[in-house]
Design brief:
globular; TIM Barrel; 4-stranded antiparallel sheet; 40% helix
Length: 382
């Protein structure tokens, strides 16, 4: 039976095995491709040169053209909120850096020569000493109607074209955003020594996110297939905080957010977290997570065989298609193909899998390896 891209995605999301695994590049800020890598790839493919629009300024991700998405057989499309009418991106120069101030008042900068990303340089709540300082901080306005102009029309257009609709969040996750606003050292110290400070900040982030998702889902909740959230919880070898600290401070807020989203849409809930965090996967399932990304299978305890065995009935894995720490950027074409086929053999059976790299495709990935990745995917289904 022939299925279109959206039908293929829905089968996979409901743990049924489609004709082939859905394929994603560019449907979110965590499953995208660097503008540099994208330009190199379309040139290598012999496609006409195009002006590459930027999807995510911080990570310098490209907005892939529709021609490219169709050529590569991508099954999903992104829908994102607009910028607030009260904030405009203004890139400025300061010594050796380009920089900008985001809608939260965070300063981001990137070296003018040789820079790949914008990194955080200043945090608006770095000097907060009392909980009143957190109280007095004003979040951006999630009710600004300009954020939502055209969202339903865009989602409807994607749906009518037969692709899956992935709706982006308005910001980093509550836990992650706390570190961005306070500075990581301050925020982690708060969690350990003055948790009321950290909890107040996460509660404000939770309120901000709930208003955003309320507005988005009221506008287009019936057209969205996947709600994309993120909260980095893991490093290469362990969690960034203990499982006990996650359960005490972060999990209740995840539960409230995901429960609210679930009350307003049938879309599946996607959470991105890098690194190693297998200890809390049962907790994530408990609070309503449907989809796990990026499946960093080279992190400690995150091998794909174990994840599929232990959590494949409850979680959809979105990512983990090829190692991006060594094989994709520096491996041979044969190594790339072998890795892709091995991951598909583990993750594809029984559904519950969407193919993507482990996190975004980086600037140093040679185009021939990306072509090899796609060739291996296609060969797997011949």
């Amino acid at each position: 039976m022939s299925v279109n891209s959206r039908e293929r995605l829905l089968l996979a999301l409901n743990h049924m095995e489609p004709d082939k695994v859905p394929f994603d590049i560019g449907a979110s800020q965590v499953t995208g491709i660097s503008a540099t890598a994208y330009k190199n790839l379309i040139k290598y493919l012999g496609m006409p040169e195009e002006k590459v629009e930027i999807f995510d300024v911080i990570q310098q991700l490209a907005i892939p053209s529709e021609k490219f998405l169709q050529k590569f057989g991508i099954d999903v499309r992104n829908v994102s909120p607009n910028n607030s009418s009260k904030w405009k991106l203004e890139l400025k120069k300061e010594g050796r850096y380009n920089f900008f101030i985001d809608q939260f008042g965070i300063k981001w900068r990137m070296p003018i020569n040789g820079g790949f990303y914008y990194d955080m340089a200043e945090h608006p709540l770095a000097d907060a000493l009392e909980i009143e300082d957190i109280d007095n901080y004003i979040f951006p306005d999630p009710n600004d109607i300009d954020r939502y102009v055209g969202i339903r029309d865009c989602a409807q257009k994607v749906r009518d074209a037969g692709y899956g609709v992935v709706m982006s969040s308005i910001s980093a996750g509550m836990f992650e955003l706390g570190g961005w606003l306070r500075g990581l050292a301050n925020f982690y110290t708060d969690l350990a020594g003055e948790p009321e400070m950290a909890c107040k900040l996460m509660d404000k982030a939770l309120e901000f996110k709930m208003k955003y998702w309320g507005n988005v889902l009221d506008a287009a909740g019936d057209l969205i297939d996947v709600v994309q959230e993120a909260d980095d919880l893991g490093g290469q070898n362990n969690m960034l905080i203990s499982p006990e600290m996650y359960r005490k401070y972060v999990k209740p807020r995840h539960k409230e957010l995901f429960g609210f989203i679930r009350s307003k849409t049938n879309a599946k809930i996607f959470i991105h977290s890098c690194g190693s965090f297998k200890e809390i996967m049962p907790d994530l399932i408990e609070v309503g997570v449907d989809i796990l990304n990026p499946v960093q299978f080279n992190a400690k305890g995150m091998d794909a065989i174990g994840l599929k065995r232990d959590f494949g009935k409850d979680l959809v894995f979105w990512g983990g298609g090829v190692d991006t720490q060594r094989i994709l950027p520096t491996g041979s074409v044969e190594e790339v193909k072998d890795c892709v086929k091995r991951q598909l053999e583990v993750l594809a059976p029984g559904g519950g899998y969407v193919f993507n790299t482990v996190h975004n495709i980086q600037p140093d990935v040679p185009p021939q390896n990306l072509v090899a990745m796609k060739e291996a995917f296609d060969e797997f289904y011949k």
